User: Which sequence fits this backbone?
């Protein structure tokens, strides 16, 4: 989760600087910068996922050297699952907190023709993204371990596609 938070911090800084250096009156440019920020965020998340893989690989080697039987007590698959789940949970927490912050305002959701199922839909979408991050983590670690670069590209491309689809709404 820490690595995801650091990637979000860096993406936020890049987006913040780019917005302040651009023309704030140009709505089309600002929308483009929002899409740019989402893409940078995804790329940084995947870069930090790779850095986390490298760190866990080193830790796994260290655990194997100090164990009695010469094998690590934790498998790479378990580490991949936990890594993906932690990325997903912290992503979901941020998503749900933003939705809950929106709910503090006056009025009731759905009163002006909006869907009354906004919160339940948001909860299901958040759950889906947590599962996606878990799957992406497992596939990413396996691809790094077996040097399947097309799988890495698939993870990054599907992550970018998902973020792009979320941006459409």
Assistant:
């Amino acid at each position: 989760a820490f690595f995801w938070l650091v990637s979000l911090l860096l993406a936020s800084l890049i987006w913040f600087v780019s917005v302040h250096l651009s023309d704030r009156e140009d709505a089309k440019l600002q929308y483009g910068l929002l899409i740019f920020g989402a893409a940078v965020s995804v790329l940084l998340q995947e870069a930090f996922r790779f850095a986390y893989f490298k760190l866990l690989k080193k830790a796994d080697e260290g655990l194997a050297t100090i164990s009695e039987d010469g094998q690590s007590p934790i498998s790479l698959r378990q580490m991949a699952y936990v890594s993906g789940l932690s990325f997903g949970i912290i992503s979901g927490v941020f998503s749900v907190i933003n939705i809950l912050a929106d709910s503090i305002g006056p009025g009731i959701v759905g009163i002006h023709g909006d869907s009354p199922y906004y919160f339940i839909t948001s909860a299901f979408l958040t759950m889906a993204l947590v599962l996606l991050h878990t799957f992406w983590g497992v596939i990413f670690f396996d691809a790094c371990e077996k040097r399947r670069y097309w799988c890495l590209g698939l993870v990054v491309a599907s992550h970018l596609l998902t973020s792009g689809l979320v941006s459409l709404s």
Observations:
- Residues 1-168 form one domain.
